[in-house]
Amino acid sequence: MSEPVRFLTAFAQSIATMALYGPQHPARNRAVDGAYRVLRDLQAHDGKPEFSFLGDEVVYGSLPLREMRDWEWAARLAAAGVQRLEFAADASRDEFEEFLEGVVARLTVSMIDTAELRPGGSRPSGAIRFGALGIRGEGRLAPLVPAAPVASGPRSYELTEEVATIEWMHEQVSERAYVPLLEAESVVRSLAVAMHGDQEMLLPLLTLREFDEYTTTHSLNVSVLTMALAEAMGMGPRDVRAFGVAGLLHDLGKTRIPLEILNKPGKLTDEERAVMQSHTVEGARIIITSDRELDLAAAVAFEHHIMLNGGGYPHRQIERKCHCASALVHVCDVYDALRTHRPYRAAWEPAAVLTYIEDGAGSDFDPDIARVFVDLMRRMEGRIEHAALADLRAGVQAAAVAASP
Ligand SMILES: [Fe+2]
Ligand SMILES: [Fe+2]
Hints:
Structural class: alpha+beta
Number of strands: 8
Radius of gyration: 22 Å
Number of helices: 16
Bound molecules: fe (ii) ion
Order of helices and strands: HHEEEHEHEEHHEHHHHHHHHHEH
Shape: elongated
Distance between the termini: 10 Å
Helix content: 40-55%
Largest sheet: 6 strands, antiparallel
Oligomer: single chain
């Protein structure tokens, strides 16, 4: 990977991580340090690197970066008024962090509780400048308008980067039984941006085309739905994203289930069902041994098939109330599973799924959560963006470049 591409990749990852964590969090500092190091490497050859984001094209100096064509962050940055980035040779680590904060604030104005927009994005005399491009050809930075950080009008996202990262994450889990936390959080951050890129919330969901893609599409959809539901329940951005991570990882244990059971088209035998159901315990175990910070995600992996009345699985010696994140993920999990076409049954219509959830309120589902979810999904009708994973394959190559650390 060339140095400018390495830098943009690290830049996007640090934006995603910063949006997720508070100022003193070690993960955030790690991401900023990493990106700053890559910037310094780049500056060893080019003291004053400049990038432009022009629709689907990324230009480094005057050189279009072919590998970054269709890089989704380019469209997101441009839409947030960041069409140009310029670095002075002496940009310090602190200036770099301040600059990243400015970009994050513009990208995620509706999702960040603590960030404040700085007028003009960056100080004109600062070592790092960003902004909208001036008159074409002049390469001059036009002043930014802080009141309008995000372009209005509907936009659609292809989710190629998110899909590639989820697939890579699942590979890591099946090969090494290890959950890459930063990447999981980056995916959630980026989904949250896709949901809030517009004036009104969108639900960017994937439609399943090929059965073996189920784990990827399902993880992404449950993450998006859980974040939307958590937000509808009045939770703050930090909780919303933590719930999004839990949604993304809820079925992680399935990466350890033999494929002949996982993808079996017919009914499972009792023995096979027991193996299948072990994905809850197995997932919780992998998550908690990977990272202590993921204890919420581990609880959700363990509890997401437990019903309000104590039914479901896994079997517990002592019954206690599930975490509310598990109850949220449980509803979203059932919704996405029923909405998906399976080899042994067709996908249910949205209205039928919502009726099913209403009917299960009080026994299977927590009644408050079920009510908010059903209201939300009825309200969201028409603002659900469906993409098919199979259609995204062509873009995955480019996304894999952007997603790899
Ligand atoms: Fe599950
Ligand atoms: Fe699930």
